[in-house]
Write a structure and sequence with these properties.
16 strands, alpha/beta, binds D-gluconic acid
Length: 428
C-alpha cells in the first residue's frame, strides 16, 4: 500500500550555518568553543566545509530527489561588527540561493539558528531590550538584498528552546528526556570555571552573558518573541512576497493517569503561551524529535526498555503526528515540518524514523490539516553543538579528513519517496 502526498509538497533536508559551514569566527559559539574549560566536546573548526562545498551539497540534495533545502544565514558573517555589513558574505548567500534556483530547489532560509554575533552578546544579547530592533535591522538588510530569491523565511529557530534548556538543567541526570539539541550535561560540574573564562572573554559578569542557548528570564523570552514580531514587520516591508514563520522545538506531550495537570502545564509553557506572537505568521515551523511523558510526579524517565537515540532520547517517530495535531488545534496557519530526525549510527533506524514520521504527517494531511512540507534533520552529519561531531543525524555522511560526502541508504530511500511523492508502507 502507498500513501500519496499532495502535489507541490516540499520534500527537503535542513542544516544550520554554524553546524556545517566552518570557521564562523565572529560568532559567540566560536568564542565559547575555544575557551579553556569549555563545555564543548570539541570546537566546530571547519565543520563540514559547507561554506566552500555548498554547490556540491545542493546538487546532491537535488539529485537525491529532494526539492527543498532549509539552511541558515549567519548573522555574525553578515554583520561581524555592529552596523558593518560584509558584502562578500551577502554575495556568498546570494550564490547559495542561486545554486538552489539552478537545481530547482526551494530554499527555506533561517535568519537566526542559535549562534549570534559576539558583539550582540557584548551588547546584552538575548536579554537586552535593544535586541529586537537590532535583529529586525539585520533581517531587513538581508531581505532587501536577497529577498527576491527567498520564498520562505524562518526568523528564529526554536524560539522556545530556553524553556527546554531550563528544564533539562533542573532534571539533569534524572533520566527524563533531554532538550532537542546537543547540550553536554557531563560537563555541568565545570560550569563555574567555564563561566569565569566566559566572563573574561566577553568582558561581562557571567550573569550578563546572554547567549541564545541558555535558560531565559520571562523578560528574555518576551524579547525573543518580540524580535520575531519586529523582524516579521521589517521583512514584510523589505520583501512582501516572502512567507514568514518561526520554528519551535516541540515534544509530543503525553500523560499517564495523575500526570494530566503536568502535561497541560507543559503544553502551556512550551507552546500555547507563544500563540499571540505566531498567529499572524504565514506558516509555522514545527520541529519534533521525541515525546515527553508526565506522571503524578512530573516528567517521567525514559523507560529502560525503550529504544534510545544517540542523544539519549526515546526513538519515537509517532510523536510527529500528535504534535501536528495539537499545533493545528490551536494555530490556524499552514505548517512546515522544518526538522525531524534521529541521531543514530544505524541508518536503518533513520529509514524507520522517516517512514513512521511521514505516516503521521500523511494521516494529518488526510484529515485536512495543512502540512505543506517535511524537512529532515539533517542533510549532512554535522556539528551537534556542545556534543561536537559525535552525533550523526545526516542523510549524508562526511569523512572530515577529506570532506568527502557519501549518501547513506536513508538518503536514497527518502529521495525515492520525494521523487514519487508517495510513501510505501513497510513494517518496522
Ligand atoms: C535544533 C536544531 C539542530 C540540532 C537538532 C538535533 O533546532 O535543535 O536545529 O541544531 O542539531 O535538533 O539535536
Amino acid at each position: 500500500m502507498a500513501l500519496h502526498f499532495p502535489v507541490g509538497f516540499l520534500w527537503g533536508a535542513s542544516t544550520a550555518a554554524h553546524q556545517v559551514e566552518g570557521n564562523n569566527t565572529n560568532s559567540d559559539f566560536w568564542l565559547m568553543e575555544h575557551l579553556e574549560g569549555s563545555t564543548f566536546k570539541e570546537p566546530s573548526g571547519s565543520a563540514v566545509d559547507h561554506y566552500r562545498l555548498y554547490r556540491e551539497d545542493i546538487a546532491r540534495l537535488s539529485e537525491l530527489g529532494l526539492n527543498t533545502y532549509r539552511f541558515s544565514i549567519e548573522w555574525a558573517r553578515i554583520e561581524p561588527e555592529e552596523g558593518l555589513i560584509d558584502e562578500a558574505a551577502i554575495d556568498h548567500y546570494r550564490d547559495v540561493l542561486n545554486a538552489c534556483k539552478e537545481c530547482n530547489v526551494t530554499p527555506v532560509v533561517t535568519l537566526h539558528h542559535f549562534s549570534s554575533p559576539q558583539w550582540l552578546i557584548r551588547a546584552g544579547g538575548w536579554e537586552s531590550e535593544e535586541t529586537p530592533a537590532r535583529f529586525a535591522r539585520y533581517c531587513a538588510h538581508v531581505m532587501r538584498e536577497l529577498g527576491e530569491l527567498i520564498p520562505y523565511v524562518c526568523t528564529i529557530n526554536e524560539a522556545n528552546i530556553a524553556i527546554g534548556i531550563a528544564k533539562i538543567m533542573k532534571r539533569y541526570q534524572s533520566g527524563a528526556p533531554g532538550a532537542q539539541v546537543g547540550m553536554n550535561m557531563e560537563k555541568m560540574d565545570q560550569m563555574q570555571t567555564y563561566y569565569a573564562e566566559l566572563s573574561k572573554a566577553f568582558g561581562l559578569p557571567p550573569s550578563e552573558i546572554n547567549t541564545f542557548l541558555a535558560p531565559r528570564t520571562e523578560n528574555g523570552i518576551e524579547i525573543i518573541f518580540s524580535a520575531h514580531v519586529e523582524a516579521r514587520a521589517a521583512i514584510r516591508r523589505a520583501s512582501p512576497h516572502t512567507q514568514i514563520g518561526l520554528t519551535l522545538s516541540l515534544y509530543d506531550i503525553q500523560s499517564i493517569p495523575g500526570g494530566e495537570d503536568h502535561a497541560a502545564h507543559a503544553l502551556q509553557e512550551e507552546f500555547l503561551q507563544f500563540i499571540p506572537y505566531l498567529k499572524d505568521d504565514d506558516f509555522f515551523g514545527l520541529q519534533n524529535y521525541t515525546r515527553a511523558v508526565y506522571g503524578p510526579d512530573g516528567i517521567m524517565p525514559v523507560s529502560a526498555d525503550a529504544e534510545k537515540t544517540q542523544m539519549g532520547n526515546e526513538f519515537y517517530p509517532e510523536g510527529m503526528e500528535a504534535v501536528i495535531r495539537y499545533v493545528s488545534k490551536h494555530l490556524n496557519i499552514p505548517i512546515l515540518i522544518t526538522e525531524n530526525g534521529v541521531g543514530t549510527d544505524n541508518d536503518e533506524r533513520r529509514i524507520a524514523c522517516i517512514d513512521r514520521a511521514l505516516k503521521g504527517v500523511h494521516a494529518c494531511i488526510a484529515d485536512g490539516i495543512p502540512v505543506n512540507g517535511y524537512m529532515h534533520w539533517s542533510l549532512l552529519d554535522n556539528f551537534e553543538w556542545q556534543l561536537g561531531f559525535s552525533k550523526t543525524f545526516g542523510l549524508i555522511a562526511v569523512d572530515r579528513s577529506t570532506m568527502k560526502r557519501t549518501s547513506k541508504p536513508s538518503a536514497i530511500h527518502f529521495g525515492e519517496i520525494a521523487n514519487k511523492n508517495e510513501l510505501s508502507l513497510m513494517a518496522y
